[in-house]
Amino acid sequence: KAGVTQTPRYLIKTRGQQVTLSCSPISGHRSVSWYQQTPGQGLQFLFEYFSETQRNKGNFPGRFSGRQFSNSRSEMNVSTLELGDSALYLCASSLAPGGPDYGYTFGSGTRLTVV
Amino acid sequence: AQSVSQHNHHVILSEAASLELGCNYSYGGTVNLFWYVQYPGQHLQLLLKYFSGDPLVKGIKGFEAEFIKSKFSFNLRKPSVQWSDTAEYFCGEASSNTGKLIFGQGTTLQVKP
Which residue, among B58, B55, B59, has the nearest Cα to B70 in the 3D structure? Predict the structure, then answer.
């Protein structure tokens, strides 16, 4: 089955602009999580959506937002970009916890560079 | 609050050496524990996971991890590393109640041929 698909793979934006990243989960997965990966900070949790509802949120400013659609696809948006937002943004999808197939499958990420 | 701590940030080993990477978690409820690996230029891949049952979990590529509840630990081990194990390793913990998965800081493993 198809994996987690993230688009675009690479983005270059100017400081002050906004950006939207997309994530298509594995078919049947209703939970989508987003992470920011940087060399200094590792994998930082941004937020998690389940059935179109944000269930969890990490410690990021309000410039970072997201949403999930009825088909479980998710988008995240970063407004008023700062140089420090340059990172690899990863999306992961999962089934509900408890079953033997429970686990998080990651996409290849979107590499965002802010100049 | 959930938190995960990985003790070693950078580990350098020679081929055939044994590996143990430390991981401690803080969540006191029902835990779901994971180890992921990220090879250079590739996406995160699941090595192994623990939900319940036998505390010694075997994963792919000869890796295993032991869940010790009394120590809040989930250390990753491999008896004999290979050059191809050079990668970054992340320990993660997810809450069954919230579905939130968080990671430790990661450990970079460099295996010298």
Answer: B55
